[in-house]
Design a protein that fits this description.
Blueprint: H1 5-17, E1 22-26, E2 31-39, E3 42-50, E4 56-62, E5 66-71, H2 74-91, H3 97-120, H4 125-148
Antiparallel strand pairs: 1-2, 2-3, 3-4, 4-5
Helix pairs in contact: 1-2
């Protein structure tokens, strides 16, 4: 289950090559924290660990948390991060990027609020249906906006 120091070296070198400013290896190669300082006000941070099934579990924790799940190996993790960082660098060129980050963090707060609601309250079927309709409408709005908006950098 524990990755070799060779795998750790490959991860460190590969992430540094794509611009990681800090890589911390925690618990002997079981947990990694990689930071990319893309601008004075933007740090993108990933945490990934080796699971019991010798897979890598990846999460982005900054600028907003999102889980990406299991990957087969370190090279898949590095390649995913490479593409993700490229997307962030591209998206930073948009004048709406700060609003995007605010919106993404609002969605994280929404998720936490919904979790607290359902874990602490007995929500009626009617309220649950109303909430689901509202969320589904938001997803449809996002899809519509995505269809008619040009890609960043175009």
């Amino acid at each position: 289950m524990i990755t070799s120091s060779f795998s750790g070296d490959i991860i460190n070198v590969s992430l540094r090559q794509i611009g990681a400013t800090s890589i911390k290896e925690v618990r002997n190669g079981i947990l990694y924290i990689a930071k990319f300082e893309l601008a004075d006000d933007l740090c993108v941070t990933y945490v990934f660990n080796v699971t019991k099934r010798d897979k890598y579990y990846l999460q982005r924790v900054e600028p907003y948390p999102i889980s990406y799940g299991d990957f087969e190996g370190a090279s898949e993790v590095v390649e995913f991060i490479r593409r993700d960082i490229r997307k962030f660098r591209n998206a930073m060129q948009s004048h709406n990027f700060p609003k995007f980050l605010e919106t993404a963090n609002d969605m994280v707060r929404l998720s936490h609020a919904a979790e607290l609601l359902f874990l602490e309250r007995n929500v009626s079927a009617e309220d649950m249906d109303a909430l689901r309709r509202s969320l589904q409408a938001s997803v449809e709005t996002i899809k519509q906006i995505r269809e008619h908006s040009p890609k960043v950098g175009q």
